[in-house]
Amino acid sequence: MAESTKTAKLTIDGKDYDLPVYAGTSGPDVIDIRKLYGQAGVFTYDPGFTSTASCDSTITYIDGDRGQLLHRGYPIDQLAEKSHYLEVCYLLLYGELPSPAQLEDFESRVTNHTMIHEQMMYLFRGYRRDAHPMAIMVGVVGAMSAFYHDSTDISDPWQREVASIRMVAKMPTIAAMAYKYSIGQPFVYPRNDLDYASNFLRMCFAVPAADYEVNPILSRAMDRIFTLHADHEQNASTSTVRLASSSGANPFACIAAGIACLWGPAHGGANQACLEMLQEIGTPDRIPEFIARAKDKDDPFRLMGFGHRVYKNFDPRAKVMKQSADEVLDLLGIEDNPTLQVAKELEKAALADPYFADKKLFPNVDFYSGIILEAMGFPTSMFTPIFALSRTVGWISQWKEMISDPQLKIGRPRQLYHGETLRDYVDIENR
Ligand code: CMC
User: Fold this and answer.
1) What integer pLDDT is reported at residue 406 of this predicted model?
2) Does the keyword Transferase apply (predicted)?
């Protein structure tokens, strides 16, 4: 951590406390309150972590006011246009763009780990067929710690590296198998001659009776979706992974915790919820009704795919996603997609509405992604698993950064207690 550049003064009951302030390379300064409880006997209170920096990181930076997302300094729109997912994985994991030789070596290591232990197939078969693929993924990824026990010692850098490669490599296989299982089709094994995105598409859509010819434009669109979701600094699921791993838990268990957190509709589950909402709206004439509901304080309905804790401007990922949606539908010859039509009209109507403008609510990454995924042939239940497989590299990068930090401490927040104070137990016959 950088040296303290200035101090903040806090006065409690007339007594002053000087708190160190640190500056990062970008973003707001932070006030170091680590010694506050020891010195002043008070905690700080910030339940949704709206003003709390939980760690010191060098991986991803978001400027929410400018609508900017940088991975290791590189803007997401440049990465989405010029790079590809595995190169972005390398960048997130190791800090720099790879040389051609480094990239080749990394891609080959990932490609050689795409199969899963054959016995893991039995795990899938234990689930009900109608299980949500996210439910299957939480369980199967957690179970990786049983199948890959030789890479669970977090104190060994080599095992950490092997676990990282295994997760990046196997997550598409696991997500595709969760899908195949849910539709009653046989699993399709990975093929090492295909690139990462094409391999995933084939594992989802090929059947033994007919192979799936991967369209390079669809594969590029899939790769771009992976890239746009690769990391997003300290969001809820990443913080979950960090908190889980702060106890020393193994990486597979921690990533399973991240998947569980991602599933919620306020987070990664929003892509499924958003497409379902757009389909429910159905036609542009019903948009005002849904906008009115989103604004109504007595109605819990929210415009899914809108708003963000950090972005108070356009989510840069949404811009790329919108352009991709146009390209994919065009390629597939889908000219008048009613859902895309509703999405575009809804975006226009919301952006022109003072409620959304005043609260700085803009479309987020989930607003257009579902339209692309649906056009590719994915059911809505697969949207969040695709987010999970893309985000795995971000979770792992953040986990690796945290584990190698010599200042690592178990995450243990405190609380403002409002319950009963000390009282004596009452025997049951006297209650
Ligand atoms: N529709 C209508 N009103 C909204 C929306 C929305 N989508 N989002 C926020 N608001 C209102 C909210 O009611 C509140 O109003 P008020 O100040 O009058 O009480 C104000 O805007 C601030 O909202 P908040 O809930 O305090 O903000 P937050 O930072 O805690 O929540 C959010 C961020 C993403 C959870 C929220 O905007 C939301 O629920 N959006 C819909 C779900 C969604 O699209 N999630 C995906 C996020 S991006 C991908 C990811 O992270 O996984």
Assistant:
1) 87
2) yes
User: In which element (H, E) is residue 324 found?
Assistant: helix 316-331
Q: How far is CA 214 from the centre of its chain?
A: 26
Cα 20 to ligand 1 centre (Å): 32
Q: How many residues does this entry show for the chain?
A: 431
Which CATH fold would you assign to the domain 269-376?
Cytochrome p450-Terp; domain 2 (1.10.230)
List, in sequence order, every residue forming a beta bridge with 22; answer none if it has no partner: 30
The domain limits of the chain are: 6-53, 72-267+389-403, 269-376
Residue 223 annotated to the active site:
no
Q: What pLDDT digit, counting tens, does each position of 131-140 carry? A: 999 999 999 9
72-267+389-403, CATH topology level: Citrate Synthase; domain 1 (1.10.580)
Q: What is the model's pTM? A: 0.94
Centre a 10 Å sphere on the Cβ of residue 67 and count the other Cβ atoms it contains: 19
Q: How far is the CA of 307 from the centre of ligand 1 (A)?
A: 5
Catalytic residue among 308, 315, 358, 405: 308
Residue 312 in contact with ligand 1 by CB distance below 6 A: no
CA angle 95, 97, 100 (to 5 degrees): 135
Q: Confidence class of residue 43 from pLDDT cuts 50, 70 and 90?
A: very high
**Mean pLDDT for all residues in the chain:** 95
Tell me if 183 CB under 6 Å of ligand 1: no
For residues 210-230, give the mean pLDDT. 94
Instruction: Specify the residue with its C-alpha closest to ligand 1, atom 25.
Output: 309
Can you read off the two tokens belonging to residue 175? 């997500």
71 is a catalytic site residue? no
Nearest alpha-carbon partner for 191 in 209, 213, 218: 213
Over range 377-398, report the average pLDDT.
Answer: 96
Q: In this structure, which residue's CA is closest to atom 29 in ligand 1?
A: 309
Looking at the predicted structure, is the pLDDT value of residue 159 above 70? yes
User: Is there an atom of ligand 1 within 6 Å of 263 CB?
Assistant: no
Q: What is the mean pLDDT of residues 414-426?
A: 98
Whose CA is closest to 231, among 393, 120, 121? 393
Half-sphere exposure of 225 (CA within 13 A, CB side): 32
More confident site: 335 or 212:
212
Tally of helices (H runs) and strands (E runs) in the chain: 18, 6
The residue with tokens 């892509």 is 271
Interatomic CA distance for residues 38 and 17, integer angstroms = 11
